[in-house]
């Protein structure tokens, strides 16, 4: 039980990789709060965790809203007494036919970059009160390189996550708060993926992955689990890439 006694808030935990992280964290002994816009799906994940003997709650959270963040952190501390781990996983895709949309640029930066900043802003005081903790920010291979068919705002937002992670790591290291980023590669499509959800395009994109396959949400969750756990006690400000070798090519 690598997270025994820990309390974790996971954004975007109602679906995809966030759901996998919530289930894995609970299996490893964490009490979990799932913060998401998708209320029915988020409650289902929490109920499945409870049915398996774990402890989970749902908090309706739009990561772009400061009042929602205040409420989600308060819900977590009210329910479980403290906050030890924040996983900033919620995000939207930049896979859209209109790769020069200004509205999409703004939305991508709002959810993927500003949402992560707000999460850190509102969680850090609670982590300080707990005597330290771990923040894991989900970026992407898109935070390192450009890609065809992906709105440049997605790359910009994920690069912002990569570097703001380092800012927070150096600023809060003396508080015992570790802050790291995880960079998934080619994974199942996001709920908001458009062009890259097309099977023919996915087959073409897979050719650029040395391992020749997409990643599984659990493979990313394992990386997040490590960074959240005390096994990573001297790891802060770093980037953990989970991409089947894509960036090594
Ligand atoms: N799927 C991929 O190929 C891939 C690759 C690299 C990185 N990522 C990143 O991994 C993270 C998880 O992606 P996924 O594939 O599980 O996507 P997903 O679409 O399956 O899940 C994203 C979750 O975030 C939630 N969400 C979206 N906007 C929100 C908001 N404003 N407030 C609260 N919750 C919100 C959604 O409701 C959903 O439950 C994202 O940050 C994504 O950018 C995904």
Describe the structure.
By secondary structure, the chain is of the alpha/beta class. It has one domain: NAD(P)-binding Rossmann-like Domain (Rossmann fold, 3-Layer(aba) Sandwich). Helices cover 44% and strands 16% of the residues. The protein contains seven helices and seven strands; from the N terminus they run βαβαβαβαβαβααβ. It has helices at residues 16-27, 39-51, 66-80, 102-129, 152-172, 199-206, 217-228, and strands at residues 7-11, 31-36, 55-60, 85-88, 133-138, 177-184, 239-242. The chain has a seven-stranded parallel β-sheet, sandwiched between helices. Helix 1 links the parallel strand 1 and strand 2 (31-36). Helix 1 (16-27) crosses helix 7, helix 3 runs parallel beside helix 4 and helix 4 (102-129) runs parallel beside helix 5 (152-172). The protein is globular and about 45 Å long. The termini are far apart. The relative contact order is 0.15. The mean pLDDT is 98. The structure holds nicotinamide-adenine-dinucleotide. The site of nicotinamide-adenine-dinucleotide has 28 residues, from helix 1 and helix 4.
- Per DSSP, the total helix count is 7
Structural class: alpha/beta
Please, what is the CATH homologous superfamily? Answer: NAD(P)-binding Rossmann-like Domain
Compute the number of structural domains. 1
Distance between the termini: 35 Å
Query: What level of helicity do the residues show?
Result: 40-55%
Which CATH architecture? 3-Layer(aba) Sandwich
Whole-number mean pLDDT: 98
Task: Using the coordinates above, name the CATH class.
Answer: Alpha Beta
Bound molecules: nicotinamide-adenine-dinucleotide
Pick out the low-confidence regions.
none
Strand content: 15-25%
């Amino acid at each position: 039980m690598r997270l025994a006694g820990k309390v974790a808030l996971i954004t975007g935990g109602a679906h995809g990789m966030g759901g996998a992280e919530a289930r894995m964290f609970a299996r490893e002994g964490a009490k979990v709060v799932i913060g998401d816009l998708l209320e029915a799906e988020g409650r289902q994940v929490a109920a499945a965790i409870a049915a398996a003997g774990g402890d989970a709650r749902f908090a309706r959270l739009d990561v772009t809203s400061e009042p929602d963040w205040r409420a989600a952190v308060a819900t977590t501390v009210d329910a479980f007494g403290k906050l030890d781990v924040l996983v900033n996983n919620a995000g939207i895709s930049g896979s859209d036919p209109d790769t020069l949309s200004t509205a999409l640029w703004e939305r991508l930066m709002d959810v993927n970059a500003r949402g992560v900043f707000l999460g850190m802003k509102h969680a850090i005081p609670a982590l300080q009160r707990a005597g330290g903790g771990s923040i894991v920010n989900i970026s992407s291979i898109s935070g390192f390189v450009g890609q065809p068919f992906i709105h440049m705002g997605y790359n910009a937002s994920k690069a912002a996550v990569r570097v703001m992670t380092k800012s927070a790591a150096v600023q809060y290291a003396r508080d015992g708060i570790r802050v790291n980023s995880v960079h998934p590669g080619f994974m199942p499509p996001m709920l908001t993926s458009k062009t890259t959800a097309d099977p023919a395009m996915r087959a073409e994109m897979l050719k650029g992955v040395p391992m020749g396959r997409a990643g599984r949400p659990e493979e990313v969750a394992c990386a997040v689990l490590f960074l959240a756990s005390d096994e990573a006690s001297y790891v802060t400000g770093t980037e953990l890439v989970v991409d089947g070798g894509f960036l090594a090519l």
